[in-house]
Every structure is written in structure tokens, then in C-alpha cells.
Amino acid sequence: MINDNLVLIVGKSASGKSMSLHTLAPPEGVMYLNCESGKKLPFAAKFKKGADGKAGFTITDPHQVFEAFTAAENMPDVHTIVIDSITYLLDMYESIYVLNSANTMKAWGDFAQYFKKLMQEYVAKSTKNVIFIAHTVDSINESEMVMETKVPVKGSLKNQGIESYFSIVIAAKRVALKALKDYQNGLLNITPREEKLGFKYVFQTKLQRKLSMNASAARLDCSQMKKPSSTTTFSNY
């Protein structure tokens, strides 16, 4: 069994990655796994509550994510699992299980196997929608002399890249309104507040030479999650 309802949302800090989750409905059916030291979401979340009565579950050990996926399969009210973020989750694994290991070579091997086990044994077999959030960094590809934006990862996973495990990768970006000016349609909604700010948070779903080449609007909706249209580059959230 393969989980086709799998999405990776990437972007730099303050690009709107976590904010994009506020349209998931119904919110009570979202199992939000907070891997960033319990960092608060930028909106009043009504996600499934943990034992502490608060929305979401704070992850303090990477293996708790395995437990969450197993538990979710016995919760018919849960429709979506969110891992926020895979970047911090892997950093957590490194801090707990690699840096203090007596055999760091083996520990780095276990690091790679942890992620592969998560993807192949838990995510792939899950009956839920699964959303991963990841931070990105810009770096120079010296062999091709181009600037690349990637999800940073260490160890042998660096050779494959996190992105290679996903068929749907969406980039959360903050785009200047002037870059969207040619897309006056009923789907793209620019609010008065955004007019004053001069920018809008959008999703980019397809590679383009210029950010303004293809724009449309849609909310992040996991009730009918499907592969984005090949003509969609930006979506409004």
C-alpha cells in the first residue's frame, strides 16, 4: 500500500509554512506533531488535543512520531497528520542519538535508517493525509554555477535529498504584489491589508524562471488532496 496523500511544504522562516495549516478542516481531525520545542502556531489552532489539553502533540523524542502514526490508525476522527518540521525532527535525532554515541559512524547510519523507516513503514502505509513541513536554505551549486534552494539534511540522506521522497512539493513564499499584477482573476484574492503591506503569502507548485509566470488561488484542503494541476504555480492561502 502506498500513501498518495503525501505533501511536503517547504520554505524559509516566516514564509507562511505553518500559517498555511489554518485552513485544514475539520481542525479537530488534524494530529499536529510539534517537533520544534513546542513552538506556538501563528494562529489559534483547534487541532486534536494531547494529554495536556492543548492543541497538538509536542515531540521530545523522534520515536514518538512512530507511536503517533500507529495511534492515528485507530482514530477514525483523524484525517491528517502534520509533522512540523522534519528539519527539526532530524536535528532532534542527531542531538539525542548521534552526538552522544560512542560509535558515531553507526549512529549516522541509524540516522538515515530512521528517516527511511518513517517514510517506508509508517507514512507509506498510513491511511491518513500526511503533511511534512521543512525549512530551506540557499546554496551555490559550484559545478553548475547556479543558486539552489534545498531542505538541509546531514549524513547519507544528503546525497538523495529529502525532496526525493515526495511527489508533491509545495514552496511557501512571500511574493511582492507587483509580481502578481498580471493575474487578475476570481481566484487570486488580494486583501486591503496585503495592498498596504505590498506582498502576499502564496504557494509555488511548479518551477518557473520568474515568480510571476503562473498564478492562481486555492486553500490548503486535505479533504480531497490530489496532485496539483500542471498549470498551477501559485495558490493563495
In short:
By secondary structure, this protein is α/β, with parallel strands linked by helices. It contains five helices and ten strands; from the N terminus they run E-E-E-H-E-H-H-E-E-E-H-E-H-E-E. The protein is 22% helix and 22% strand.
Structure commentary:
The chain contains five helices and ten strands, in the order βββαβααβββαβαββ. With 237 residues, the chain is α/β, with parallel strands linked by helices. It has a domain of 162 residues: Rossmann fold (3-Layer(aba) Sandwich). The chain has an eight-stranded mixed sheet. β6 and β7 form a beta hairpin. α2 packs antiparallel against α3. The longest helix is centred in the middle third of the chain and has 20 residues.
